[in-house]
Amino acid sequence: MNKDRVLGVFIFIASIAVILAYIWLTFFAPWSYLVIQITATVAIAGVFGILAWIGYTLATPLLPNP
Predict the structure, then answer these.
(1) Spatial contact of 47 and 37, defined as CB atoms under 8 Å apart
(2) Nearby residues of 29 by Cβ (< 8 Å), 6 or more positions away
(3) Which residue in 30, 33, 29, 53 sits closest to 41, CA to CA?
(4) How far is Cα 2 from Cα 66, in angstroms, rounded to an integer?
(5) Which pLDDT score, from 0 to 100, does residue 52 have?
(6) Tell me: the pLDDT tens digits for 7-64?
(7) pLDDT at position 26
(8) Residue 25: how many CB atoms within 10 A of its CB?
(9) Using alpha carbons only, what angle is made at residue 37 by residues 31 and 41, rounded to the nearest 5 degrees?
(10) What is the SS3 string spanning the chain?
(11) Which residue among 39, 43, 47, 56 sits deepest, i.e. has the most Cβ atoms within 10 Å of its Cβ?
């Protein structure tokens, strides 16, 4: 196999493992509520962090106004 296929297989297997681990953590683990809270916090912080970065980039141009 070439490098791309090996990487693709690795990414596929890792993704399935993460999906199964997340399902177990959210439905069967005793701390599932905490896992959902952390996931939601990371998702919201990620989205609004990107929006803040875009806003900062738009508000501070690279070249000063003449």
Answers:
(1) no
(2) 35
(3) 33
(4) 54
(5) 97
(6) 999 999 999 999 999 999 999 999 999 999 999 999 999 999 999 999 998 888 776 6
(7) 94
(8) 16
(9) 145
(10) CCHHHHHHHHHHHHHHHHHHHHHHHHHCCCCHHHHHHHHHHHHHHHHHHHHHHHHHHHHCCCCCCC
(11) 39
Residue 57, CA distances (Å) to 12, 22, 41, 42, 60 in order: 35, 34, 24, 22, 5
AA letter at 15? S
Question: Which residue, chain included where needed, has tokens 């501070």?
Answer: 60
For 66, the token pair is 């003449």
